[in-house]
C-alpha cells in the first residue's frame, strides 16, 4: 500500500476513535449500554461487566530487577492482579519477565515461532513484522466498542501513535507513551556548586563551557582533590540511541544549532538528517576540547547512565544534559548521598541566548498488541480502561494508594501494561501544581497531582530526598517549568520524520546511526575531525541520501493529506 493511503487510513481510524467517546461506562470501562449485549469484533458472544466464570489471559513483561513485591506477593499475585480479577473477572498470568534487552530477544523468538501470549508490548520493529505476518488481532473496533473516554483520549493524544499502529486501515496496536515534549533536553546543574563558586546561571553556550571548566578546575566540592568533572556524557551519547534519560548530549548539540539523530529542514526547505549539517562539526570540536582539558570523564565511552549516576552520587559531577525526570532517576541518589546536593534544571542555551530543544517525532514507548489467537482480545482494552481510572478524582484515596505506591515500592508497575498513561499528564501536573502554589483551588486535581503537590509543599519544609526530586521536576523553576517555557516561547523542535517502514530502510538507518555514534565518540576522544567528513561520505554513498529522499516524500504526502 502506498504511504498516502496508509496515512489517510490512519487518519480515519483516529477520527473514529475521537468521535466515539462514550458518555457512560461500566465499572470495567465497557459502555454501560453495550457491555452486556454486544459481542466483540473477534466474534465472542459477550463481554459482561464481570466475566463469570473468570477468564484467563497470558502476558509477558519487561520488568526491571529493581521492582520489588511485598512479602508473599509476586508478579502473578499482587494488588493489581487481584483488582483486575475482582473488577473484571480476568485472571492475568504472566508467563515470564525479563529486563528490556532480554525481553526484546525473547519476544523476537516468540514472534518468529508464532508462540505468542495473548497480550504483550511490541517494539516498532516487532509490530511491523507481526502486522506483515498476520499474527495480530484488529483492535480498532474493540477500542470503539469497549474503550472508555479516558482510554480513547490517551490513544488519540499519543502524537503519531495511531498512524504508527495502523496497517492497511486496521489498528493493530494500542500506542502508549508520553508526549514528545517530555523528551526535550534540559540542563541539570549542581546549583550549590554554582553558588559556592560565585557563578551565574548559563545564558549562552559560552557560559555553559565556562561552568564546565570551573566545575572541573576550581574544586567545587571543597575537598582539595582534583576529582570532579564539569559535563557528564555516557556511552551511546544520544537519548534516541541509548534510551532517554541522564547524560545525553542532544541538548549540547542544540546549543550550537545542531540536531543530530533528528530530521530537520535544510536552508532550501527540504528534509535533511541533522547530523549531516555544518553545525554538527562545531559541537563536536567543542566536546573534543572539553575532553582534552579534563572536563569530561575519560571513561565516558564505557559508562551507561548508571555509571554516570555513580559519579553524581559520589559528588564528582556538576552538570549534564538530560530528561525532565532526571531528578527522580538518577539524581535522587545524589541527594540521598549528600542532602546538600541541589541539582537544578535550566533551559538549554545557544550562542547568544535561548536555543531550540529537539524532540523525537513521536514518543511512543509501547505498542500493546493482542495475538490473533487470543480468545478474548477485548480484555486488553478493558484492562487499560481500569488503569486509566487512576486519573479519576473520585477514586477513593485508599484505593488509589493501594494501586500506585507504597513507600519506595512502585505498585503501578505491577499492572500488565504500565506505560499506558495520559501523554499530557506531566504538563497537566506541572500546571495544576503551579496554580495551587499560587493560591488556586485543588478541587478537581487527580490523585497523582495532589500527591505531587504534597511533595512540593513538603520540600519547602525541608522534606525528604523524594520530596526534593518531585519539587525539582514539578515545582517552581522545575524541569517541567523549563519545558513549559519552551512551549510558550515556541522553542520545541520535533523531528520532522519518524520511523521508516520498510525493513531495508530501518536496517540501513540503524547501521548509519551506529557508525555516526562511533565516529562522534572517536572525535570526542581526540581523533581528527576529518573522521566526520569520512562519515558524511559514507552516509551519502551507503544510502543516506536515499533515506532523506524517502523522508521528504513521506512529508510531502502528509502535507497533501492535511489540506
Automatic annotation (TrEMBL):
PROSITE patterns the UniProt entry points to: PROKAR_LIPOPROTEIN (PS51257)
Region (Disordered): 27-47
Alphabetical list of Gene3D superfamilies matching this protein: Periplasmic binding protein-like II
Ranges annotated as biased composition (Low complexity): 27-43
InterPro entries the record matches: Bact_solute-bd_prot1, SBP
SUPFAM superfamilies: Periplasmic binding protein-like II
PANTHER family per the UniProt record, alphabetical: ARABINOSE-BINDING PROTEIN-RELATED, DIACETYLCHITOBIOSE BINDING PROTEIN DASA
Protein name: Extracellular solute-binding protein
Organism: Cohnella ginsengisoli
